[in-house]
Design brief:
The chain is an all-alpha fold. The protein has a domain of 43 residues. It is built from 3 helices and no strands. The model has no long low-confidence stretch (mean pLDDT 85).
C-alpha cells in the first residue's frame, strides 16, 4: 500500500480566468439590477399618471362593482326562489308565525 501524496491528482485551474469571470458576473448582476430598477421606476410613474387621469379611482370602481354584483346576486336568487316555488313556502311560514299558529 502506497502512502504518499504523489499518487493523488491535484486540482488546478486558471486563477486569472476565474477572477475575470467573477468580475464579469458581478458587473452583469449590477447592470441587471440597475436596468430592473430603471424599468420599474418608469412603469410605476406611468401607472401613477394613468390612475391620476381616471375619472374614478380604481378602489371606488371596485367598491361600486362589488355593490352591483351583490344586488345582482340577490335579485337572481329572489327570482330563482319565486320561479321554483320556494318563496310561497317561505311566505306561508311567515304568515303562520304572524297569525300565531
Amino acid at each position: 500500500m502506497a502512502t504518499g501524496t504523489g499518487s493523488r491528482p491535484t486540482f488546478e485551474f486558471n486563477r486569472g480566468l476565474l477572477r475575470g469571470g467573477v468580475v464579469l458576473l458581478g458587473t452583469g448582476v449590477l447592470l441587471s439590477l440597475a436596468g430592473a430598477t430603471a424599468a420599474s421606476v418608469a412603469l410605476l410613474s406611468g401607472v401613477r399618471r394613468w390612475v391620476n387621469q381616471l375619472d374614478e379611482s380604481p378602489a371606488h370602481a371596485a367598491r361600486r362593482r362589488l355593490v352591483q354584483t351583490r344586488h345582482a346576486v340577490m335579485a337572481g336568487s329572489e327570482a330563482w326562489r319565486r320561479e321554483s316555488g320556494h318563496a310561497q313556502r317561505d311566505d306561508s311560514r311567515d304568515m303562520a308565525s304572524v297569525s300565531g299558529r
